[in-house]
Amino acid sequence: MTIENVSYTNADQTSITAMIDGQQWGIPVNPNNRHYQMIQRWLAESPDNTIAAYVAPEITTALEPLPASTLTPLLTDEIQEL
Fold this sequence. Notes:
Blueprint: E1 3-8, E2 15-20, E3 23-28, H1 34-45, H2 68-81
């Protein structure tokens, strides 16, 4: 079994994402969950196996509006389809 790219998905550390045998999994931090149990065994195998910390997404400012010249052809195409 191959386990890779293990990281917390939120700041509360209540969920993990991991690639297990080539498939991406969302895993709740729950001792009764079989995938969480796999992660715990994987962590115990080696000190190099760790769960990466959650990294909050970057907050960006509001998007700049598109210029009207960009929108006009789109609207014209939609009207012609009607």
